[in-house]
Amino acid sequence: MGLIYKTSAWNDALWAGHCKASRSAQITLGAGSQKQPQFHEFAHDMHADLYLRHEPQRHNQAPEWATSLLDQAHDLAEWQTLRARCERNGFAAGVCTEAMLQALVPLLPEAPKRQRGQHGTQNAQQESGQGEGERPSSDDASTVRRALRQALRQAQNAVEKAEASTAAMASAMGLHAGTGPGHAETMQDLDLVRQLWALLRDNPTMRHIAEMAGRLQRLGQAHKKCQVIPAVGRIKGITVGGDLDRILPAELAGLRSQNRLHRLSTLSKIIGKRAMQYEMQGEESETRGPIIVLLDESGSMQGEPEQWSKAVALALLTTATQQRRMWFVCGFTDRVQHEHHIEAGASTTGILLEALSMRAASGGTAFDPPLGRALEVLNTLAAFRKADVILITDGEGRLSKDVAEQVNQQRKEQGLHCYIVGIGHIPPRTLSPIADAIYAVSGHPERDSATVAPLIAQVA
Predict the structure, then answer these.
(1) Full residue range of the structural domain in which residue 338 is found
(2) In this predicted structure, what is the pLDDT of residue 284?
(3) Which span out of 206-220, 337-351, 369-383, 434-448 was modeled with the highest average pLDDT?
(4) 298: which residues sit within 8 A by CB, 6+ positions away?
(5) Do 160 and 300 fall into the same domain?
(6) Total structural domains in the chain?
C-alpha cells in the first residue's frame, strides 16, 4: 500500500520484484528511509503513478512532503513523457522509479526523531498532515522544480540505457518486458529481464556486446526490407481482388468510361477488392534452416575482436529465437572448446548467457575441428540439414582438403550455406573455397555494422 495512493497488489508486487533484483534500489530505499521512515511507501506511489494508466485513488491524508513532490512532478511536461513510456511496462516503470527515487533522496526533509524511531508507522504523520521537518529542505520552489526536472531526465536516460542494453539479450531469450501488441507481461518474464539487466549493468563488456548486437539486428532488418522482392510467377487463373498490377484490362477500362457512375462503380470494386484479376503462382525461398555459429576463441581474439564476434553471434541467435529455429554454438581454438545446442522454442536463458560468457583462451586457430564438428551435427541430426553455418574468426588457420570437400558436398547436396566473418583488415583467404560470402570487419563500429548487416538479413 502506498503513502499517497491506494495502490493495487499487482503494482506492489511489480515494485517488490524490481527491488529484489536491484541492489541499487535497495540502497536507495535505505538512504531515503533514514530521512523519512515512510519512504518505502512513497516508492510504491511513484511506481503506481508511472505504471498505471490512471492515477489511483488517494488516501484522505498524506504527508505534505510526499504530496508536494509528486504534485510538482505532475506539473512538468517531462513527467507526462516519462509516464507514457512506462505505462503498463513493468520493467521500464521499475527502472524509472529507481532513478527518480535516487534523485529525490536529497530533496527529502528530515523527519522528527520521534518519527524516525517509529520506522514503518504512519500514525504520527497522518494525524498532523504536515509536521515538523516535513517540508522540503528548500523553500525555493524553482530549486525543487529544477531538481525534479533533473530527476526526470535521469530516469529517461536510465530507461533508454536499460532497454537498449537488454533488447538484444531479451529477444534472443524470447522474453518480453512490456505489454505491447502480442507481448504479454508475466512476472516470470519480468524477473528474467530484471536479472538480465542486473547482469548487464554490472558488466560493461557484456552490455557493450548486447548494444552492438541490437544495432546489428536493427540494421539487418532494415537491409532485408530494402532487398525483399516478391516472387513473380506464371498466371494460374482468374480471381477477385484489388491488386492494380494484376487487375484485368477489361476491368480497368471502366476507369476511362464517359459515364461517371460507371467510373465510380469500377473504383468501388477495386477499393473493395472485388475486381477481376489474374491469379499468379510463383516460388519464393522457403524459411531458412537452423543456425550454426562457430566462434574463434583463440588468444588473439581477446578485447574488441571477441566483443564483435559475440555481438554478431547474439544478433544471429536473436533471429533464430524469434523465428523458432534451432541453433548450435561452438567455441574453438585449435580444438573445440565448448558447444551449446538449443531446440526450436526451448528456453535459452542459461545456455545463452553461458555461451556468451566464455572468454578467449590461449592457443592457436584451426578450422578443421569446428567445421568437422559442424559436419557431424549436420549428418547426425536430420533437423540441421540445410543449415546456415557462420564462422567468425580474426585470422588464418589450417583447413584440410578433405574437410573443405565435405563442406562443399553438403553445400551442393543439402543446401548448406557457409558464411565467414573475418575480424581484421585481411579476410581469411583459407576459407574462401567453402564460403558463400565473406564479410570483413576492420574495427570501425559504424562501417562494420553496415558491413555485417547484409549477413544478418541473409540468414534471416
Answers:
(1) 291-459
(2) 44
(3) 369-383
(4) 333, 334, 360, 361, 362, 363, 364, 365, 394, 395
(5) no
(6) 3
